[in-house]
Amino acid sequence: MIESRPIDKLLCHAVLVLGVLFVAFPLYIALVTATLTAQQAIQVPLPLAPGPHLWANIVDVWQHGAGNAAYPFGTMMENSFIMAIGITLGKLVISVISAYSIVYFRFPLRNVFFWAIFVTLMLPVEVRIFPTVSVIANLRLINTYGGLIVPLIASATSTFLFRQFFLALPDELVEAARVDGAGPMRFFWDVALPLSKTIIAALFVIDFIYGWNQYLWPILATNVPQMTTAVVGVKAMMGNGDVSTPWQLVMAATLLTMLPPLVVVMAMQRWFVRGLIESEK
Amino acid sequence: MEEQSPFGGATHFVGLDNFRSLFADPRYLGSFQTTLVFSALVTVSGLVISLVLAATANRVGKSKPIYQTLLIWPYAVPPAIAAVLWSFLFNPSIGLITYGLEKVGITWNHAINPGQAMFLVVLASVWQQISYNFVFFSAGLQAIPKSLSEAAAIDGAGPLRRFFDIVLPLLSPTTFFLLVVNIVYAFFYTFPVIDAATGGGPVQATMTLVYKIYLEGFTNFDLGTSGAQSVILMAIVIGLTVIQFKYIERRVQYG
Predict the structure, then answer these.
(1) Which of A84, A116, B120, B126 could form a disulfide with A211 if both were Cys (CB 3.0 to 4.6 A apart)?
(2) Residue A81 pLDDT greater than 50, yes or no
(3) Chain A: residue whose CA lies nearest to B56
């Protein structure tokens, strides 16, 4: 063990506490603002102690929305939820199947497919917005959950991750399964899938956050308030950010929006950290 | 490579005209420069802050997991929400930090001042990205054998010396990887931050390449120019991906 002077330790803790404060400060202010009345929220300077109106603000914004997004925020949360879950499940299913077929089946153009998946999907939606929007518009999927979800479920990273994992499975497993008379489907359900449980958990966290946090795509794929997602809704509520913005409601909506991804990350922190690191190898 | 009227009525082939006019356009070149400045600021400050935090967290022993949990959570915050939070704090008329700055004699209005607008979007992006970098630096630091630092300590190297001469060089694969990831993040994934915090303004001060594509395609309906910009951006992503791959291959050899 290296010598550790108390002053060193103290300094380390000081730096870390500073970091935590920097990270937590905006959240605390959001929390406080969400507990104030409309008058208090635009007071200069903002009161630093929480008030008693948190629940009232949350109920208000949940039922009526606020500002330029005067539509029940509950609906937007629901849309976000459906979109995030849809994207997560879609990504997992598609990538596990395509990785399985690439690793365990020999068919013509196998490598071409692999690279096609890889190269095309490296491109973020932000870069390929036009083609994607026009495809979705031509399919009449604007303002549907399908339009929100389908263009985002193809995932190169997840496919790659599953591929690496399947490649690392020992050949003896396949041989043993074949000796026991298992076909490819049986092997998939009874061996490959159960073994990849941890990867699936890790990808679940990452993909859920990816889906929940989408911003540009929901703006383009929807144009009616009943299909807006929570993140887009909050931004719309803020408007130009002038004094007329009902900040206490915006911040209540902000808290609600942050809650699901935070819960997922905190509850699955172990898998999440591992998944994050694995998926980038 | 085509020119199209906004409602898609007429399309005709114009060859490389869109590209030529782009590179002759000072505003496009300006946006290139803005993107470079923005990415450099986000990448460098994000990496430095998270490296300092990860390195100190690695030294505190028992309480490390607590700090880790407290530092990781912004990863879950949607980028647009991060921008909303920080714009509220820096709101020109009612923001808490604006008020504090006023007290020390600085007038803050990012709707007018280009430098301040840039600072705001960099701050929100860095705040969001720290947790991600932190996770990777922590993992990288954990992989460095303790015995190396101990040997150096026996030879009389102080904590700072040990950090710069042993830890930092051994951490360089992680750092390089994060460098690429952060540049990609700053280039492409900061659209929500910019849209929610500044909307590319004031006067193009925070107009990054991705934001410009969006604005020209969907607000000005200039699909040809916008498409040409997409193609250029695509070339940049592919370039960055290739760099990352080369590096991964190298790491496999060394590992």
Answers:
(1) A84
(2) yes
(3) A12
